Amino acid sequence: MHAFITAVRIPLADMVAIARPDHWFKNVFMIPGLVIGVLFVPAVRPDIASAVLIGLISTCLIASANYTINEWLDAESDRHHPLKHMRSAAQGRLVASQIFAQYLTLSVVGLGLASLVSKDFFLISNVLLMMGVLYNVRPFRTKDRSYLDVISESVNNPLRLLLGWFIVVDGSFPPSSVLMAYWMGGAFLMAIKRYAEFRFIGDPQRASLYRRSFAGYDEKTLLLSGFFYAITASFFLAIFLIKHRIEFVLSFPLFAILFVWYLSIGMKNGSAAQRPEKLFRETPFMAYVGFLVAAVAVMQLVDMPFLYPLLDVQQLGQDAGN
């Protein structure tokens, strides 16, 4: 009897593990979309609290559906990773029928909840689910293609921002500059994750067996691509922040420090950048993120008239001519 109970518990624990509830924290990337939506649309829907809760649960379930097929379809390649070879799928402890049932259940329930939030929220939820298919399933499997792997996975960042936005706003999109900044910022995080993984494995041949896209990378190209994504994200972030409120110009050095600090984390041996869900262990970095959020909030609330001349482009041109 005891052996039977144990046999049941092990698959159940494995199924929960491949849904990766420890990754649900990534859905905090919905919050900026929600905040921006409130700033752009002062009249907040009366059921905002329940909409946020339902929307968050929905997004977590859809993300878990994507994680479920991710781990199942990565089983063979994960066997070449120093740590991931211990995953249940890599060790052959799961069967296809279980995976399909869990994926279908999470998808249907997640989309069902999404439909209760708004039509646009439901639409973007479908796109988020589809991105999981494009990223993981052959013949698409964008994760196997160098550079496209980072670009396609980081699309989930602006999608999460849109999900937060559409909890508040109906029928219109946020500024394209903030969407691009979010996308490229996510690409930077993903490139540094790839860099940390590549260094951790320490063998280019084994790394390419684990992740096919590594065949087109080395440490230098991963760092250079991350640098490109960081610059591009900063450019679009600057456009959005300055157009919205000139006080935000003071936040640029703070965001630059954030990028550099995360890069330094990625360069550590056994870096937390490999598993962002463990990033909370980088206490000073997380404290700095909190400080940055507070600083941006102050810049939103406090007028700084000494910055207003920077908006007078005509006057600046005359001064430059003199």
UniProtKB/TrEMBL annotation:
Keyword terms: Cell membrane, Membrane, Transmembrane, Transmembrane helix
Protein origin, superkingdom: Bacteria
Transmembrane segments: 24-42, 48-73, 94-115, 121-137, 158-174, 222-242, 248-265, 285-302
UniProt signal peptide: none
Keyword Transmembrane helix annotated: yes
UniProt subcellular location: Membrane
Record has Transmembrane helix as a keyword: yes
Principal cellular location given in the protein's record: membrane
Recorded topology in the membrane: Multi-pass membrane protein
Name by which UniProt lists this protein: UbiA family prenyltransferase
